[in-house]
Design goal:
With 319 residues, this protein is of the alpha+beta class. A hairpin with a 2-residue loop joins strand 6 and strand 7. Mean pLDDT is 90; it is low at 1-9. Helix 8 (267-280) runs antiparallel to helix 9 (282-290). It contains nine helices and 15 strands. The strands form four sheets. It has an eight-stranded antiparallel sheet with strand order 1-2-6-7-10-13-14-15, covered by helices on one side. Strands 3-5-4 form a three-stranded antiparallel sheet, with helices on one face. A two-stranded antiparallel ribbon has the order 8-9. It has a domain at 65-149: T-fold (Orthogonal Bundle). The chain has helices at 2-9, 36-57, 65-69, 81-96, 105-117, 124-133, 158-174, 267-280, 282-290, and strands at 13-22, 25-33, 76-78, 139-141, 146-149, 179-186, 189-194, 198-202, 216-220, 224-229, 234-237, 240-243, 259-264, 296-300, 306-308. The longest helix has 22 residues, at 36-57. It is globular, with a radius of gyration of 21 Å.
């Protein structure tokens, strides 16, 4: 009886680990469970799912299902349910955002990187031709579980696949016995389930300094957060710095929105929205966010103004 009572009042066990293994990004897993054995079992379940889905969705692995499918343009290929799910989500976000979110933006980014390495901007004709190709759907999903790839240009699903994998990892860990809270954080794109949530600092998009004061602090509980910005990534062409984020509709780097942070029910949605809002700008972006249930955004424009959606929560406590 004494042993049973002691187990009831024993504080939960908190596990925290960091790995370099998710689609080229550092990943952090935190689990709070009744005991160490349950926490470690939940973490193992999440990491096993990471390994499984990376073999499907990683573009860095030439043997992944995605990489192999991208070499079979014009063929009708049977795909796994996981790859089809992410492709369907990409179609949905491409349509919702009128092309501001597009997997083909990767091709435009490579065009800018190649030109920048040569000390110039991209060839206007190449840019125009590529943006024209992007106006058509990059693939067709058929009702029998197969898909046909149409795009002959590079495609990238990382802006969506990373968040989708984070959601799957968090969900499976959360379903494990004895688990009270879960956090999966992939390079700043995170999902929380259970517990009291956490306070996340929003970085100032106008500086790449890690010790700079945060722009805001926000509480995230039973939801997801993702950010997009140009402070750390981009290309130098002549004397001008250009964002790595490209507007798929024009082929031009994003200029007017250096930073976006999104809160959404799941990380895949937060990832897609963070990318799309960077392209759409404050007015169109806020209109899109307000049309989506339980989503919120902080959009920072080039003039330093902060545009907060109606559901954006007040600043969390300083830490």
């Amino acid at each position: 009886m004494l042993r049973s009572l002691t187990s009831l009042i024993r504080p939960p066990y908190r596990l925290q680990s960091v790995y370099e293994r998710l689609l080229g990004t550092e990943i952090e897993v935190q689990v709070v469970a009744r005991n160490q054995q349950q926490a470690e079992a939940a973490e193992r379940t999440a990491l096993d799912e990471l390994e499984r889905l990376s073999a499907v969705l990683s573009r860095f692995d030439p043997q992944s299902e995605l990489s192999r499918w991208l070499t079979r343009t014009g063929e009708r290929v049977r795909l796994s349910s996981e790859l089809r799910a992410v492709l369907a989500l990409a179609d949905d976000w491409r349509e919702r955002t009128d092309g501001a979110f597009h997997p083909g933006a990767d091709a435009l980014g490579r065009l800018w990187q190649t030109a920048a390495a040569q000390g110039r901007g991209p060839d206007t004709g190449e840019l125009t031709a590529l943006t024209h190709h992007l106006q058509s759907g990059p693939w067709t999903l058929h009702g029998d579980g197969t898909a046909t790839l149409h795009a002959t240009y590079p495609l990238g699903l990382n802006a969506l696949a990373k968040g989708w994998i984070v959601d799957r990892m968090a969900a499976l860990a959360w379903q494990s016995p004895g688990v009270q809270a879960v956090l999966v954080n992939a390079g700043g794109d995170l999902r929380t389930m259970g517990g009291r949530g956490l306070t996340v600092t929003v970085a100032d998009p106008f500086t790449a300094r890690d010790d700079a004061s945060p722009l805001a602090r926000v509480q995230v509980q039973n939801g997801a957060l993702a950010s997009s910005g140009s402070a750390h990534r981009g290309v130098q062409v002549g004397g001008h710095w250009h964002s790595h984020l490209i507007d798929p509709r024009s082929g031009q780097p994003v200029q007017h929105v250096p930073g976006v942070t999104v809160i959404a029910p799941d990380c895949a949605a937060a990832d897609a929205l963070a990318t799309a809002l960077s392209v759409l700008g404050a007015l169109e972006g806020l209109a899109l966010v307000h049309s989506l249930p339980d989503c919120a955004a902080l959009i920072v424009t080039r003039d330093g103004q902060q545009h907060r959606s109606s559901l954006w929560p007040p600043d969390g406590p300083a830490q």
